[in-house]
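As a warm-up, study this chain.
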Amino acid sequence: MIRLILMIWMSLIAVPLQAAVEVQEVTSPGGIKAWLVEEHSIPFTALELRFRGGAVLDITGKRGAINLMAGLLEEGAGELDSQGFSQARETLATSFDYRAFDDAMSISARFLTENRGEAVSLLKTSIMQPTFGQDDIDRVREQVLSGLRSDATDPDEIARNTFDKMTWGNHAYGSNRNGTVESVNALSREDIVAAHRAVFARDRLYVSAVGDITAQELGVLMDKLLGDIPATGAPLVEHADYQLTGGITVIPFDTPQSVALFGHVGITRDDPDFVAAYILNEVFGGNGLDSRLMVEVREKRGLTYGVGTYLAPMDYGELVVGQVRSDNSRIAESIEVIKQEWEKIAETGLTANELDEAKTYLTGAYPLRFDGNAPIARIMVGMQMTGLGVDYIANRNDLVNAVTLEDIRRVAKRIYQPENLHFVVVGQPDGVQNSN
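Now compare it with the structure written out below.
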């Protein structure tokens, strides 16, 4: 246990961001590609694996299968049952994390150099030989069902599920990746095995590593860990059709406060205007207490404790989306202020001072993201999935500084669409009516 605590502590030690993190592109003898940052000052490595596709690959009628499968990967593998796998992992002072997201299956591994070989063998067993025992399936299924039952009485989750369904319809984005009580109850072991077969394939694999490992060692590791994974998996899905129009949808719910989720179609990550859109959102609703929405809705009027927006560029669809919570008697005013601010930023963009301050903040805060081997590994694998080059870390602040006020005003008119802004309100909102 002491060694495991030490390993977790070491995962938080930062690699210095100089000119800067030196990212190497590595190709294993077997042809598997990865990005690597070597850092040999501590005997520890963080490894990140991503498989594009994720929960969107759920078969129709089997929603939640991939999420349930991900939760079972550490519940027994090879000759080890759930308890045996947990003990083996603890003995090696290694950490594995398996998660299914909408667009990717994620596996994070942390291990000490002295245990690298054994840790990789154990990780491979969990990926390639999960037992999917019925007792384990039933236990993890009940954990998922408990979460779904809780979500059914959570206004935030009700708003999210309603918004997604209205936005994406029958596409996988239109439903909760955890499934429904009915769909999860109906999943069989064969469904879990099929989900595993759909997700794990080398044609959708991305790898990054940071720590005490050389390029040659990483190449050998990748072939050992990933060389036996099938070449192809299930076909990836089609782009989602955006279906939402402007208006308000009210979902009655007995609560003293109403939750409003709002937004409209957004911008893809590979769009040339994405950096400008990112700066705009930072000023408008992304920068905590200093954002325009926080100032107007909270500071000036006291309508909420918090309001914010973010860009959501997913693989098969994109949104500009935000959320606010206000007393039932004041949510109507919150909605009106948000609408007014949406129109204002669309018409005028930012001031020169706002743009300068945003650039200063964003360029100064960027190095703080690289606060440990594990965060750097996650950032690098995300960069690969979004098509950014190995030089992006070094060039990112230059991209931010290159955005002009003219760019901001042009992109603001393009990105913010007041006429298409839709609010899903869950609660008992005074003075708010359905308008769709």
